[in-house]
User: What shape does this take?
Amino acid sequence: AKLSNKKGVNWSYTTQPQAHLNQRRMYWPRGKVLGGSSSINAMIYIRGQSWDYDNWARLGNPGWDFESVLPYFMKSEDQQRGDSDWHATGGLLSVQDLRYTNPLNEVFFTAASALGFHTHDDFNSDIQAGVGNFQVTQRNGKRCSAAVAFLRPALKRPNLRVLTGALTEKVLFDGNRATGVTVLQKGRRRDLSGGEIILSSGAVNSPQLLMLSGIGPAEHLRSMDIDVKHDLPGVGQNLQDHLDICTLISSSSHDTYDKVNQLLAGIQYIFNRQGPATSNLAEAGGFVCSKLAIDDRPDIQFHFVAAMLDDHGRNILPGHGMTIHACPLRPGSRGEIRLQSADPSQAPLIEPNYLQDPNDLELMLEGANLSREIFLQPGFDAIRNGFLFPEADDLSRDGQIDFIRRKAETIYHPVGTCKMGVDPMAVVDPTLEVHGIENLRVVDASVMPELISGNTNAPTIMIAEKCADMIVNHV
Assistant: This one.
């Protein structure tokens, strides 16, 4: 959990002031380490809803419907529970049940069931709705990041060379064909060339790198004194993210993670790979339909944490408590990534435009109200001392809106800034090749045309698996 704030492995970005969130600059942790954000995330393995991928196909991306992408989810997976219609064994990505789960999770399940949200043991089957413990990308109680799963086994291959501490500054071209990249490593700038050029820098940095290379909205590039290689107006546009609101209670229970005996937990982990040190903290949660849901598809996701989490865990609160995160799954708001400078070492401008769509606020209110209702159920009566957030002095609609504008934060799922498609704002085609440029693909969460209904790590790995097949088969 400390990785979300740890310098050296985190880009620690901040957004532009958010007009609908009291002009706050939001904290955006992103992985600055091999494996990217899969090396600092909460390890939750969620695929989303089949509708999400069928909709990608409807938007002009044949081959990206759920029936077509499910084999790539399964290709990666080494599922602890064994083979089934939805899961597979033998892949490089280890997906397991948590070795340790907090007893307070059961209180959450009981309370949610009292509101009609029943328990469920596999959010990645044909049914997503329900509450339960998440599966995680772990192997023997230890993080199984993309680097651990896929890169580490390949490190001894003669055709692979890994450079660390190297900042990619731009893509190199011969005409409209990408031929290599320029990198800066330890003060030395050099050009690297090879076969096909693949950008996998994520929803923030892939569009930044394209724009630094002269690919993007022509007027914006000229304003940065960058020569326009190809006018592609969608680069950096279509930014989407899951905005999250946390409801917190203080508690008389000492089962929370707020004051873990770190020595005992360390001993349990070192000798047995058991105990709280194997936890991802966000062990439990679920997917529910609010009263605004369409077609019985869950529209809100919960993450239940047996600890008090405020401001990404950076604000340590005294005592013991619990947190329910709630986020609308399919926000309508759209933002953008822009350059603030032609200097590659300067972070881009991040404008998520949270709550631009008024319906997103209504769903945030639904999530906050449902979270409070769960905490008010009898199962929590014996251990609930009181509410910390939202403060109890104003629970009117206006009071709840004020609470959301003051306290909502990202749940770390930015996507969409190099979207896949065939419309004028698309950046890559269904083979993930950049429109108008030869020999250049983007392969990361930025290509998602719309945000999926859940955590984004597993879908991003699926995208990479599918693209790997395209490359091998010269598609």
